[in-house]
Amino acid sequence: MRSIGKCLTPRPTALLIGMLWLTACAMGGSEAAGPCPPVVEYSHAEQERAAVEVTATPEGSVIARMLGDYAVLRDQARACR
C-alpha cells in the first residue's frame, strides 16, 4: 500500500512561486500616496536661522555637503508635481 503523505507536501518550486505572487501583491500598494514625496515648507525665519548656522560651519564640512544634496532632492520633489 502506498503512502499519500508525500503527495500532499507542496514542492519547493510551488512554494517559491506562491511567495513571489504574494510579494508582488504586497508591492502593488506602495505608491498609494503618489509618486512624489511631500516637500516640507519652512518659514522665512527658519530659513534665515539655517543660513546663519550653515555659514558658521567650517569650510568643506560634511553637513554642508549633505544639505546641498538635500536641496537637490527638494528641487526634484518640487519638479515631480
From TrEMBL:
Q: Which UniProt keywords apply?
A: Signal
Q: Which residues form the signal peptide?
A: 1-26
Domain of life assignment = Bacteria
Checking PROSITE patterns in the record gives: PROKAR_LIPOPROTEIN (PS51257)
Protein name, please? Uncharacterized protein
The top of its lineage is: Bacteria, Pseudomonadati, Pseudomonadota, Alphaproteobacteria, Rhodobacterales
